[in-house]
Structure formats: structure tokens, C-alpha cells
């Protein structure tokens, strides 16, 4: 059984003196996802301006982008435009590759450990980049000896292990969807696998969301703020009278 | 029973044990999380957006423990390095 699209070699590029370069389904499917995202975004933003959007596509894309911006603002509390290019791209890429996994013959690129490790490495690099941009090199490095210098090795280990966890979580979820569907297709065909495909769609969307949210939380925690600080501030200010009133009603 | 049979048997049994034991903890944890979240939504319906978002994130974090077990079970069943090594060693002795 194929449990990863890495194993399916679609064609071999002649590499000259370096030897041949086998191109697996992972790479080709990533290209397909990238092409869909780029062409779809380009079509939706044709003739973009400050006027009210008239086409349905543009409206949908703007709603989507606004939703991502709101989520980033809720976690980071800062300017979403700083994080949007990175976190939004991660979210869109993982979302589209997870959701396209239901198309027959298309194996999600995120169902391969190499893709998810690459995405997690991007997060690993982006965390110090944003942290240094906010606090400077000294300020960023000081976070490693934060409670005491004794904790420095554990902070480093934590940074590495959460990267591995990020990669394996996404890979495991997408891969388990594919494998369980394949196993059930051979045991109880027709109806039950379709329900699991639906569950796989839900899992794919949630996992894409979680991947982006976790990346955002890591970035925000490296730049010195508490994740969700902005939200707690607003909710603490706005809702506390309401809470007491509901309690009184009860 | 040759070495290959032993490795195959141990791999299959261990894969089953991995996913069986490894899914107990996350199942209990997720049940508790969901129950608490439902209770919180019932008490504060206005906060249900925040609670639901946090719920999904924490459910996925809890679930990842089970997913790690699943990945290990899949590796034992389909990508077993010891199995590959035993097959390679057997082919080597047969050839030599």
C-alpha cells in the first residue's frame, strides 16, 4: 500500500553530471496546489481597487483574507500585515492541499513527511526572524535563559521538539485519513469510506487552521507578548459586567 | 522460527499494542476537554467563539499524541527498518 506520495515517482528529470532527478507525486502535487493558489488569487484580484467589490470571487477572497487577519489579530494583538504573508501562506497551502486530497488520484502533498517537515522548518526559521526583528539579537537570545540559565538546554530542546511535533501532527493526520480510507475501501466499499472522506475534509481544515495558529503562537511568544493577550484585554474589559449579570440571573 | 518470522510477529503485535494503549490516554483527555468546553459554553454562551477555537486547537494538540502512536504503528507495519535489514541480510547470505 502506498502510504506516502513520496513513493510514487511520476517522471525522472535528466540531471546531467549530477545524476537523474526523480520527481515524485509530492512535488508535482505541490506545484498543482501552488498553481491553483496563484492563478485563483490572480483572477480574483484582477482590477483590484478601493471600490466595493462587485465580483463574487473577489468578495469571497476578501472575506477569507479578512478572516485570516482577524484570527492573526486575535492571537498576536499586533499589526496583521506583518504576519499575514507568512502565516496566511502556510494556512492557504496546507488548507488547499488537505482539501484537495478528496480528489481521486490526487495525493495530498501534506501526506508526505518531507513536505510537512519543510513547512515546520519554515516556522523554525521564522520564529527567530520575527523575534530578532522585534527585540534585537540580545533581546531574543535572552528568552532562552528566561527563568534561569539552567533552563537554556530545555528551551532549545523544546524548540526542536515542537518543530518535530508540528511536522508529525500534520503528516499523521493527513496520512491517517488516506490510510484509513484505503483500508475501509477494501473492507466495506461504497458508503462508509465516503463518510470517512467527509471526516477527513473536516480534519484537514482543522489541521490547516491549527498549523497556522501554532506557527502564529510560536512567533508571538518569541516576540515577547503573551499569545491571546489582546483578546483577553478586550474581553476582560467588555464582558465582566455581563458575567456578573448572568450569574445574578441564575 | 527464523529471525524474519520473529521480527514480523513482534512488529505486528507491537503495532497493535502501540495504537491500542496509545489511544487510551488521548481518548480520556479529549472526552474531558469536550465536556469542560461544553460546560463552559453552557455557562457563557457569549464566549462560545473563543471557547470553540481554543477547544479545536487543544483537541488537536491532545490528539497528536494518538497520531504519534499511529505513525509509529504505520512505520512498524509498512516501513519497518528492522524488517528491511533482515530481508537484506537474508538476501546477502543467500547470495554469498
Topology:
The complex is a heterodimer of chains A (250) and B (96).
Chain A: E1 9-13, E2 21-24, H1 25-44, H2 56-76, H3 80-99, H4 113-142, H5 152-187, H6 192-222, H7 229-249
Antiparallel strand pairs in A: 1-2
Helix pairs in contact in A: 1-3, 2-3, 2-6, 3-6, 4-5, 4-6, 5-6
Chain B: H1 3-22, H2 24-43, H3 48-78, H4 81-95
Helix pairs in contact in B: 1-3, 1-4, 2-3
Short description:
Chain A has 250 residues and is mostly helical.
Order of strands side by side in the largest beta sheet of chain A? Answer: 1-2
Average pLDDT confidence of chain B is: 87
Rg of chain B, Å, rounded: 21 Å
Order of helices and strands of chain B: HHHH
* Low-confidence sequence ranges of chain A: 232-250
General shape of chain B: rod-shaped
Number of helices of chain A: 7
CATH homologous superfamily caption of chain B: F1F0 ATP synthase subunit C
The CATH class label of chain B is Mainly Alpha
And the CATH topology of chain B? F1FO ATP Synthase
Report what the structure shows.
The complex is a heterodimer of chains A (250) and B (96). Chain A has 250 residues and is mostly helical. Chain A has one domain. Chain A has seven helices and two strands; from the N terminus they run ββααααααα. A two-stranded antiparallel sheet of chain A has the order 1-2. In chain A, a hairpin with a 7-residue loop joins strand 1 and strand 2. By secondary structure, chain B is mostly helical. Chain B has one domain: F1FO ATP Synthase (Up-down Bundle). Chain B is rod-shaped. The chains are: A mainly alpha (250), B mainly alpha (96).
Keywords for this entry:
heterodimer, A: 250 residues, mainly alpha, two-stranded antiparallel ribbon, 2 strands, 72% helix, disordered C terminus, B: 96 residues, F1FO ATP Synthase, rod-shaped
